[in-house]
Every structure is written in structure tokens, then in C-alpha cells.
Amino acid sequence: QAIELAPEGVERAGHLNSYADFLEFARHDCDKAEEFCKKAIEADPADGRYLESYARFLQSRRSDLDAAESFYKRSIEADPMHQTHFAGYANFLAAFRHDATAAETQYRAAEQYFRESIDADDSPRMWSVLLAQVVLAQGRTADGLKLLSQSDEPRLRPDLQIVVRFLRYAHETRPSRRAAGLSAVKELLNSDVRSR
Questions:
Q1: Ordered alpha helix ranges (H), 6-156
Q2: 196 has a pLDDT exceeding 70
Q3: Rounded distance, CA 118 to CA 114, Å?
Q4: Using an 8 Å Cβ cutoff, are 40 and 53 in contact?
């Protein structure tokens, strides 16, 4: 019903993509899920999230690695500011193509992009969070947590605050700090804050 009520375009694409996820994971109806993945892309072809979502579907449900790789590349081209596209492609390259060198290249490309953005921006807080995600994805926990501490969380948009709090929770090793991190995430979730 939400899909029918949503206007054409960006908002509708989000509903279509969410419904595709529901069909895939809750109903296990991969044919219908794929249909709605494609509809989400048609509704907003410039949004890399839907391209990457379809790439993951193709790799995991259809085992069509060539098509999946094509959609990962398209997601990066469509939205190069969204580091998760680089990371998703890097994970794909490492796990499915068994190409650690190419995966490392993608992680490094994302890292370089965000470092340059930090240097070029008078207000680099957002870029520090995005760079931290790439660094943490590479297993460089100390460096990633240091970048998060430089993000000046109280001055971030709420959608980035929740990312910072979640990453601190997920990568903290001390139980007391993990508990505090989880409480901080719950606080924002209870205020209806979500990441983008």
C-alpha cells in the first residue's frame, strides 16, 4: 500500500527497494524480489543504493557474478560519495572473485577519495565519518576509532551521529564502552533517527 501511495521518483524507489528486501528475506520469493529491485532502479536510476542492492541480490541469489560486478561498478559511478559502494565492491572482489589485490584497490580508492575531501573541506566532520567506515572495514580498528573521535559528533547531522555511535559500539572491545555505545544508539533510534 505504501508503494501505491508514494509519489513517483525518489520516495517511491525507497519503498520498492524495501519491498524487494521483504520479498527476498521474509517471503523467500526471489523472482518477485528481483522484479521489485528492478522497479526501484527504474524509479531512481541515479541512486547507487538500489544498484548495489541489486548487485548483492545477483551475487547471492542468482550467482550471476558478471552481472553483479556490473551493478557494483554502476553503483560507484552513480554515487561516488557513498563509500559503502566501494566497500561492497571490494568485499565482492575478495569473496567471489578471490582478488585481494583488486579489493584492496577499491578500499584504497575510497580512502583516498575521503582523505582528499577532508583536506578540501572547511568542515570535514562528515568526511571523517565516511573515511572511518572504510578504515574499519579494512580491519584497522585503532585508526578508524581515532577518525571517529575527530568527527565532532555533536555537530554532525543526526543520520551521521547514529553511524558514529553504531561504529563505536561495533568496534569497541571494552564491555563498559560497548554497553554505553549500545545505549547511545538506542537513544537515537528511539528518537526515530536513522542512517541514510
A1: 10-25, 30-43, 48-57, 65-78, 83-95, 100-120, 125-137, 141-149
A2: no
A3: 6
A4: yes
Give me the sign of the Cα torsion angle 76, 80, 86, 88.
negative
Q: Would you tell me how many other CB atoms lie within 10 Å of the CB of residue 125?
A: 18
Predicted TM-score of the model (pTM): 0.63
Q: Does pLDDT of 4 surpass 70?
A: no
Chain mean position to CA 31? 24
The predicted structure's pLDDT at residue 7: 53
pLDDT digits (tens, 9 = 90+) for 90-138: 889 888 998 889 988 888 888 887 888 778 876 678 888 888 988 888 8
Q: Specify the residue for cell string 557494483.
A: 72
Query: Which residue in 42, 39, 92 sits closest to 70, CA to CA?
Result: 92
Q: What is the pLDDT of residue 123?
A: 66
* Whole-number Å distance between alpha carbons of 67 and 50: 14
Higher local confidence (pLDDT), 91 or 1: 91
User: What is the CB neighbour count within 10 angstroms for residue 24?
Assistant: 21
Q: What is the DSSP letter of 187?
A: H
CA 180/CA 19 separation, integer angstroms: 33
CB 115 within 8 A of CB 128: no
- First vs last C-alpha separation in the chain: 23
